[in-house]
Amino acid sequence: MAEYSRLVMTKLNNANYQTWKFKMELLLTKEKLWNVVTDDPPDPVTDEWSIKAKQAQATIGLLLEDSQLHIIRKETTSKATWTAVQRYHEKSTMSSKVSLLKKICALELRDDGDMSEHLADMEDLVDQLASLGEPLAEHLTVALMLSSLPDSYDTRIKALETRSEEDLTKEIVKNKILEEYSAYHLL
């Protein structure tokens, strides 16, 4: 179990929930603890279950910033701890959805910006919106991706826009603009 201490994982704060959640699920799965977070305990509760549940709860708690501890302080099980964190950070309110949409629409790559980082930021915001129950249609994601590019990409954008909608997938667009970015930055 102490093996995870060698992993570098940013603790949960108010700005990184989606990434933290994904990594935490991976970590708990790796440590064979995910089932004690998601499943109901057996009847009767075994010693093995109790030990694993406490390990999972401790792992979750230790990977929270101090400012987040109030969320789980009163919880007594790993499942309740996970649920409390989820409930706190996955507030599916209209204001959080609007806020994410504004961030997505405002995202712009500067001419000297890093394309890979820009696309990762966009995908992260789109994933956050989807986790609130508002997944964007692929063609809308593609449109937002293309509209976030600087004027220097207008030729590539126009070439992509001539493709049929079925051929204009997020992966194709991502690959094409990354190719353009790499070719331009290798010169």
**Coarse shape:** elongated
Structural class: mainly alpha
Low-confidence stretches: none
Q: Rounded to an integer, what's the Rg over CA atoms?
A: 21 Å
Helix percentage range: 55-70%
Tell me the number of strands.
0
Strand content: under 5%
Calculate the terminal CA-CA distance, rounded to whole Å: 48 Å
Mean pLDDT: 89
Q: What is the helix tally? A: 9
Domain count? 2
Order of helices and strands: HHHHHHHHH
Describe it for me?
This protein is an all-alpha fold and 187 residues long. The chain is built from nine helices and no strands. The N and C termini lie far apart (48 Å). Helix 3 (47-62) packs parallel to helix 4 and helix 5 (94-106) runs antiparallel to helix 6. The protein folds into two domains: 12-89, no CATH class; 94-186, no CATH class.
List the helices and strands and how they pair.
Layout: H1 17-30, H2 34-38, H3 47-62, H4 78-89, H5 94-106, H6 115-131, H7 138-147, H8 154-161, H9 170-186
